[in-house]
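Take a sample.
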Amino acid sequence: MTNIRDIAKKAGVSVSTVSRVLNHHPYVKEEKRRLVEQVIHELNYEQNINAVHLSKGKTNMIAVVLPFINHPYFSLLLEGVASKALEKQYQLVICQTNYDVKKEEEALHMLKTKQVDGVIICSRASSWSTIEYYQQHGPIAVCENVQNRSIRSVYVDHYAAFKQALMYLKEKGYTDIGYCIGRMTGTNSLQRQQAYKEYVERINQPYHPEWVFQGCLNVTDGEKVVEKLVQMKNRPQALLVTNDQVAIGIKAQCEQAGISVPGELAIIGFDNHPLSSYLQITTIELPLKEMGETLFTLVGSKVPQKIELPFRFIERKSV
């Protein structure tokens, strides 16, 4: 196998000159650089990238952990991360987990074994103790509000966003309100649930567990929500919906089922997907691309930081 000594011998230069050319060192005469590059091409030489990483003490690679790649929420986060990675000449290792803890730990193990320089977790299933264990091996940034922990994080206040939407519905005359959620666990989901339960208690209304629809991720899930609604004798007047994809599915299925929006059912979505504007769905905009950019910046910072980004309530015609 060809090594840099072979290249140096054939090019008639020192090993250190070959090394400088391979590492794009500026202080090499142009004539020697061209000669070395020609010999590298003739000998079909490829650097041992693992050896390069070992010598530099970094890989210029970041692992991005996310449950689903094809979901608009995570796609926009990833777009933000990728734009910054391209700018800083980093490569991304995409780790799709479907919320499988073992898959997340595989990505975190890459940090421990120095295969990546850092890990970005867009939505986690692992415990904080697991995250904190692996953090001793390198930086980890998460996309949620982390309290009392020295972990890098960027987040939107989901409690405040949900509370504002609930109060908006109340002011519009809606009291019987349900909500759709992707999963009941997770910091962001728990904040939404807290805001909802506090609202129910505040207006002295009984909590209706059947008005909480779990496992809502895409358009099809929204259609299933309406299928359940039409079977209810006592159904909510309004729904806060985990994302605009689900809200779109709900609105479309309502038309099929003869349920008027907002007359019989008001809808508020999340994310401000472009289709939500076209369909006039009231929504809460989350700065997802900016969050992704910030995640990348945080994972490269030496000191853990917590950064809150603002949400924006967008009033349209679905309420």
In short: The chain has 13 helices and twelve strands.
